[in-house]
Amino acid sequence: MEFSEVVRRRRMVRDYDPDRPVPGEVRDRLLEHAIRAPSAGFSQGWAFLVLESPEERERFWTATTDESDAADRWLTRMRRAPLLIVPLSHKAAYLERYAESDKGWTDRDEARWPVPYWDIDTGMASLLMLLTAVDEGLAACFFGVPPEHLAGFRTVFGVPEDYTPIGCVSVGYVGAEDRRSPSLRRGRRGLEEVVHRGRW
Amino acid sequence: MEFSEVVRRRRMVRDYDPDRPVPGEVRDRLLEHAIRAPSAGFSQGWAFLVLESPEERERFWTATTDESDAADRWLTRMRRAPLLIVPLSHKAAYLERYAESDKGWTDRDEARWPVPYWDIDTGMASLLMLLTAVDEGLAACFFGVPPEHLAGFRTVFGVPEDYTPIGCVSVGYVGAEDRRSPSLRRGRRGLEEVVHRGRW
Q1: Domain ranges across chain A
Q2: Which of B48, B145, B186 comes nearest A195 by C-beta?
Q3: What's the pLDDT score for residue A74?
Q4: How far apart are CA A44 and CA A122, in angstroms?
Q5: Which of A24, A71, A84, B172 is placed for a possible disulfide with A51 were both Cys, Cβ 3.0 to 4.6 Å?
Q6: Which residue of chain A comes nearest to B39, CA vs CA?
Q7: Looking at the domain B3-175, which fold is it?
């Protein structure tokens, strides 16, 4: 698909057809594109946890949602997604990369970093997966993993302490009950509102 | 251009043809695509500072680099970029958005956020600009603004304290002296290294 068409069509989809799994070659392309994201110092401080079987996905939802969520229609629909990919950022890889001789930082002081590029770069990798899903005729959603479930998530999947899930990407074919987010009623902020030319 | 071709071709370019400005319609498309990035709760807590005239760009380089950098060949080449777009994240917009009634958070406690989506979403907007430059036959680079120059940058351009530049996107036609980053010698980390299936 044309790039601009992919950008125009991309949106968060929150219901999936439970009878149509994600083809293996599409899953592979999502990941191949993800690792083409840019990263500061080519640190590539990221990892991707791929959950496909019903058991693997069930473990994810159980570990990251509350009992009270069970009645939530959001969760009912999201659980139908046949593929979950959890992108994780690895801050230590960045601190180590910039302590190497060509970068010239002689310590691993986090204060040298204006913003957390480990999270930003892993976010860029996530966006490439969202866009690739659209390019392949599928749909996807990016959503957060609540901090109170972080420890449980790490335990269930054996994730090391120094890797942090920046969210989760659900992927599948769009479901019949997909609803647009009520947040969209807020409207898109136009260029005249967010662009500053020459100075603020 | 086909989406997958754009993803494959995208790379950081660090020298630009000083005689070829960025066409106005390309600049506009970069920004139109940037604001199509996803954002948590559709918060859209971002802004874009567009610097085009030689004076505007000179002010940016003077504010964000050291005297000692003057001899730096990186800077000599990067200064040739005819267009700079500084993406800024606005954390306060996210904290306020999630204090609204439909989100149900009754405070603005930053601890509710597992990762800084204000920076991640603004990073996604930046990646859309990098990709759009490739789609339009131009080149771009995303680079950081050092924390020690943050206050100076804000003063020079009148940027409010609660907006943080997550970096800068330089855009132009690729220059004759573009060199690949030495960081690329590190090699791309393959899928077998970064992908975990079912569990870690």
Answers
A1: 3-194
A2: B48
A3: 87
A4: 8
A5: A84
A6: A142
A7: NADH Oxidase (3.40.109)
